[in-house]
Request: fold
Amino acid sequence: MEGREHMFSRRKRSLVLMGLLLVAFLTTLACQQAPASAPINSPSASGQATTAASASAKVPVPSTPFMIPVAFDMSGPTSGSFIDSIKPAWEDYWGAINEQGGILGRKVEWRIYDDKQSPAEGAQVWKRMVSDFPNAPLIHIEGSGVRVSIKPQAGEDKKVAIGTGNTFEVVSPPGWVFATHNVYDDMVATALERYFLPQWKESRPLRFAFVTQDAAWAKAIENVIPYLKKLPNLEVLPTEYTPAVPVDLTAQMTRLKEGGADVVWVQHVEAGMAPVLREAQRMGLKDKIKWITGHSVDAGTLFPLVGDNIAGLYQVSPTASPYSDASQPGVKFMNDVFKAKHPNAKFLPGTMYSGEVMAAMLARAAIEQAVQKVGSWDKLTGDVLYDTYQSLKVDTQGLTGTLTYDKTKRWAVDYNKITQFNAAGENKAISDWLPVSRSFQVKAQ
Reply:
């Protein structure tokens, strides 16, 4: 009897020990296989290349923050859009990243300058930024016309210049300027070639026209007209020009009506878009013409100017919709940061905000990769950062497609969506990701 009890006890202890070993094995296996959930501002959640702890530990962290000079239009014709959307996006993103420890443990700071969306003023502001921060390898400068004006100087100063909006002159020939978006020309071509023309069922050609601000950054979009004229079943009408803040658009609208325009692209910021929509409504053209714009319009600034008259406005977006694509990790990250910083905002972030977030994401990834490559913040020069940008690839986790640059490619976005505003100002996707129509050839350096 005692022998049996002793044998049973040994067998019981063996079974318990085997059970404990099995639990330990399964727990270890689960830990190895299950991905750790990423906090909102972690590298993986924000679409950045993650950094191994061992790699970052090898890079000493300076006691001073990493400084980025930044130039926005703070008092010029498009200042409302920059103050309402672009400046907050830059500050929100870096504020969130700093809360998580910055880049490789180093906090990021910035100084804001006013380039007034003026090429002449921007060139002078560039000189001041370089003088104030001679060791800064990166300068963020907004305004596509401004970036054209400083493009040669950026190469001479060996400083990478970044921004959002893009034109042919910015990207070709390739230089030290890296823009986030595909060029405005290609946005127009994509909208017509991949969305509106395939849906056109009339026996006559679709009639298309531009309404643009009479400014260099806006009129540059007309570079796409030769490409558009080659598209079958499309007729291009004369462009209508307006001041930065139009007062009387009767003449322009009358010509559009007489020309029988079907689709009109408005190249303006909100201060110019609002009068166009109001005048179109007054003249009975709001619902007869499909009005479309690029990424330079956000509901947060436009809706207070036009109310539910925003309904029906189309937009070519380089980023996913914060409404209809909110489940995407990259979109959720942006929305969560925005809500945390602006709890009383009536709208989720628009395309100007999301575009600026992308510019900051790209900068963060490039800086991180460049520092790891050279092993020291002290060795992060403009040349090192330039080389990094020329092979940069960033997964945005659904905020847009994968962002890439190479030795000749100075735009990061390769896909666009068509979105449309409803009466409440919500901008929802009405198309899948559309491959960008490339309307130009990059000139050699």
In short: The chain has two domains: 53-183+350-404, 185-318+415-435.
